[in-house]
Design brief:
By secondary structure, the protein is an alpha+beta fold. It has a single domain, classed as RRM (RNA recognition motif) domain (Alpha-Beta Plaits). It has 3 helices and 6 strands; from the N terminus they run αβαβαββββ. The strands form 2 sheets. It has a 4-stranded antiparallel beta sheet. α1 packs across α3. The longest helix is centred in the middle third of the chain and has 12 residues. It is globular and about 50 Å long. The protein starts with a helix and ends in an 11-residue tail after the last strand.
Length: about 100
């Protein structure tokens, strides 16, 4: 897999209270990923981009909510999230600008 393909798989890190607790307790990090990405591709992308050893990957699909926009109805887009557990002793630093 080439570098460009791996960069397109991982969309963004998910930084919430729940993901912070998972990072502290279980050494897990949460990422938004492409809807077509599978676990082996996500593992390869995280290992290559962040230079860590991945132990396991769990994925889940979050369905977009239906919302009202004025008189009409709209739908938020569906998102796929990946919970990535890395080897103990390693960590991923997210730089906030």
């Amino acid at each position: 897999m080439n570098q460009e393909f791996l960069l397109q798989l991982i969309t963004a890190p998910v930084v919430t209270e729940k993901s912070s607790i998972a990072a502290d307790l279980n050494n897990q990090y949460v990422f938004k990923v492409s809807n077509t990405a599978n676990k082996t591709e996500i593992k390869a992308a995280v290992e290559k981009l962040f230079d860590v050893t991945v132990e396991s990957v769990k994925t889940l699909n979050v369905k977009g909510k239906t919302k009202r926009f004025g008189k009409g109805l709209g739908k938020r887009s569906d998102v796929k999230k990946a919970y990535v557990r890395i080897k103990s002793g390693q960590e991923i630093e997210f730089v906030s600008a």
